[in-house]
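Please check our next protein.
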Amino acid sequence: MRAVGVEEELVVDTGSFAVQPGDKMLLCSDGLTNMVENDKIRQLLEAGTADPAAALAAAALEAGGLDNVTALVVEYNAE
């Protein structure tokens, strides 16, 4: 388990991957993934709502919201 501000030096996982137009990326805390099943997360991301991050956070809170919830959704458009 790692968190910003806990240790003097933070070890950061990095990587890269190819993206295509229309791809969506989700950066979130375990407050989302511990409360909402992957299939439900996928469903909410594919729903096309104006603010999918807000929909994901709301789903975590509706499921009990036992931890803080952070969600950032980015969609890649080549335009």
